[in-house]
Design goal:
Elements lengths: L35 H6 L5 H13 L1 H12 L8 E6 L2 E6 L2 E2 L1 H5 L12 E6 L5 E5 H17 L7 E5 L4 H12 L3 E4 L6 H11 L3 E5 L2 E3 L2 E3 L1 H8 L8 E5 L13 E3 H7 L9 E2 L3 E7 L7 E6 L1 H14 L7 E4 L6 H13 L3 E5 L10 H9 L3 E4 L1 H9 L3 H4 L8 E4 L6 H11 L6 E3 L34 E4 L11 E6 L9 E2 L3 H9 L6 E9 L5 E6 L4 E3 L2 E3 L1 H9 L4 E11 L3 E10 L7 H15 L7 E4 L13 H8 L14 H8 L6
Helix pairs in contact: 2-3, 5-6, 5-9, 7-8, 10-11, 13-15, 17-18
The protein binds adenosine-5'-monophosphate-propyl ester (PRX).
Length: about 675
Amino acid sequence: MSNAGDFAPNTKTHEMAMEDKITSVSKEKRVIKPAAEFQKQANIGSMTAYRKMYRESINSPSKFWAKQAKDFLVWRKPWNKVVEWKAPHAKWFTGGMINVAENCLDRHLGTARENKAAIIFEGEPGDVRTITYKQLHGEVCRFANVLTRLGVKKGDRVAIYLPMVPEAAVAMLATARIGAIHTVIFGGFSSSAITERVNDCEAKLVITADGGYRRGGVVELKKNVDEALKKTPSVEKVVVVRRCGNSVQMKKGRDVWYHEELEEASPVHKAKGFSSENPLFILYTSGSTGKPKGVLHTSAGYLLGTALTSYYVFDLKEYDTYWCSADVGWITGHSYVVYGPLCSGATTVMYEGAPNYPDIDRFWSIIERHRISIFYTAPTAIRAFMRGGDEPVKKHDMSSLRLLGTVGEPINPEAWMWYYKTIGGGRCPVVDTWWQTETGAIMITPLPGVTPMKPGSATLPFFGVEPEVVDDSGRKVPKNSGGKLVIKRPWPSMLRTLWGDDKRFKEQYWSQFPGIYFCGDGCRQDKDGYYWIVGRIDDVLNVSGHRLGTAELESALVSHADVAEAAIVSKPDEIKGSGVVAFVTLKAGRNGSDNLKKTLREHVGKEIGPIARPDEIRFTEGLPKTRSGKIMRRILKEVASGGDRYGDVTTLEDFNVVARLAKTGEDE
Ligand code: PRX
């Protein structure tokens, strides 16, 4: 499936890299026009309409956001001021009072949505539960009463360590309903990760489950919590959801069962209004180094950002069955499994287990059986499925799909094309959405049916978002040259600070360019104004004086028919300063050979030019990834230079991968 032929002829040579610039070498030129049928029914109907609304959002932000806040949210008390901006601190909709859970639940009662499925849940063993808005409202009200009875008050922190089960959404919404702050800890994390996060935010209560199903086994969550809570003085109570029925120890006076508490609780709970800036949640995001950062999001602005993007980016309609495959432990799960879709009255699907259990076609089987119409997942998953070939997809009827989305990493054009053609049957627009835990909601994205798509580009900014690509001194770089991606003005769903560490918040995001948000990504804007993320700035390679982003090089490798996934890192080189090492996983049934290494080097040379040709290629069974699927290039760098000081590996998905990787160079 080499697409060399689809690339435009070599028209441009590499630009000279200035000290602080990134040389962009991608020659991807395909433009895919959305289907007319989609456009006809799209929530925003044309590029002209998008541009008009975008201009309004930039030229009259207060007017624009005031209108959206009125249209998309229900308020207890209107705000006085849309935004108060004292860089780097923003307050949105000050003076306003709102209840986030009421916006996701109560507002739908007494409407046609009341008996609509709010959540369709599928467990890994195959158990399915459908929960209507009315039922979800009842359960959240009961649980809000339970939390209050257990002593949780406005502003208290509640840690949630659950599998992907509906109770996770209930726990989040009930915490929000009483004005407390949740911190969801991904169910794949170990007890030490729980201890660290619980202690950092001094959580008063923990909500967990006996276990969760994963790859046919039971992950013993309660056991991890017990271990973690040996060193967490702030925790007073633990609520345990019964999911797997595995035996657990209940500590007297501390631990209670969710179902027993719920049985006794009243289903009546009157939601109170809280101030717009009341903290909603803390979500810890681990950078490649250092202790996790507790990203703080507040209520009204965050909810507005997720609701508005859900409506426009996912083109939500009353009849959609929408599935975002992210875990609630990540921001994508917060914004696009729970808050955005429920605030919009959508049907959101939750799946508990592994994507390839019991077989590689599990996702496609879920899409077929639940007649999913909108599907949102990560490039890492797409590449894994692509590796398995088309057959597992072809076994299923995927005709219910009408829109596809991706998030988490740059998607290489080959994976994009596969997603578009094989999963979407060439009829579904693909929204490649760029955003971060810190941004709360989607920032750069196509609008489906409207924006002409370029595989590998997140395309254009969403309403109210003003991105720019700049050099180290903050000057805008010319079109088509690389630089740092910044956001030049505040937006409603932005992070407000890092929990307990405002100094780090300022340093991390606002110190490079005062008053301007630096997201940490390298980027290029093309002549049509489209944004192309070229990877994290920390991962940029310096080869013979050229600074190259990882994404373009990796995508050149993946455009070869035999390659499933690739990761590029630099290693010290006596002559060039540094050399390029490529770690490559092959598609099922392909064999790594010296010949193939040669072919791949030539392929990259042809696709993007000789400077980027890897000095070394190593075939590997797997790449080290974080649990959210991001490649940990820091570890690969260490492996490439023959070292074994891997640093903090607590977020690594599978350490065995690293052990196997270390062997990849042995035949060299
Ligand atoms: O590098 C960008 C990459 O993921 C980073 C944010 O990661 P996280 O906070 O874990 O949130 C992931 C889910 C929103 C970004 O700085 N990233 C995310 N989406 C894209 C992306 N890179 C390129 N294209 C995307 N669509």
